[in-house]
Specification:
With 349 residues, this protein is mainly beta. The chain is 0% helix and 50% strand. The chain is built from no helices and 30 strands.
Length: 349
Amino acid sequence: MRLLTHHLLAAMTLVLAACGGRAVIDEPVVEGVVLLHQGDAPFYDIVVAGEHVYWTRYGYERGAVMRCPKAGCPDGPTSIAPSASDDTTRDPRSLAADDTRLYWVDLNTGPEVTSRTVSACRHPDCDDVEVVATSPAADVAVLDGELFMAIGYPDAGIARCPASGCEGSPVTTLGQWLPPPFRVVAAEGFVAFSVLGSNASGPAAPLVGGCPASGCGDAPAIYLDRGLGGDVALDDSHAYFVAMDANGTRGVWRCPKLGCDGDGPDLLYESDTVVSALVVDDDRVYLAAYVGPDADSGTNVVSCPKSGCVEAAMLHGSDPQSVVRMTQDDEHLFWIGGRNDARIMRAPK
């Protein structure tokens, strides 16, 4: 393991309220941090497409796909699914987007429904919702006209399906692994995943890995085979992932997409606390790390050069609770913060 890191400076923590040390945001910690929407329900996933930010509100009988202009929605967001033309959306969770359409995994929570689906619609209006796959998917990504789905039990693995739709089960299996993957991303002709579960002492297994979008062959490239995996991101040459290794070291790590060399992954950012979300662009790695031991201590959104945090990380914003998921465009970061009273936040890069 090669260490390319520096701890986040204590001075970069968000301001804590005097009462019990609970983190609050009375005003933006960093200039330009904007609250786009404050909800009264939990949010699950978030993407940016065109001039809008989209997110999923989950829960039986209150699930919806929401839309807000990236500049803000002072009159409130728009619920684009379910709608008058869509009675299939019930409990949407993971969300993905390409240049023309949104895609989401729907748990179909309810007494009369037994299988998960993947739905799609053309953004921004989303007036043409259709079910494109029936699949036990936990997460979905889209790349070059194909969907990639993280599949749970009993056929744990990564499946591929035309984004236009496939009848019944997904048509191609890139590979199968236990425990099942819960996160999948696709970019630059490659797919990367994290599995749900830990592996501190058992036989080596792909906890975080990847393979070409065309298929994994005999086995995927393995980035982490012991420890606990988390969020994952890709650029044209490397995979970046959140993990706690077998020695208990937490942080953000990096491997060449085709696999780590003999020294193992590079540790770009070491954290004493949970790192909950991750994205990358051409120059930097952006991550969300708890300020203290749990989500109620607040979360800092920071970044480092892709070469690692050899100096202090740059602070982009803070959230009074956890950052659940994060996304980006060329100029801004967007994230879901909090739990039952979730927030949609925007901060400049």
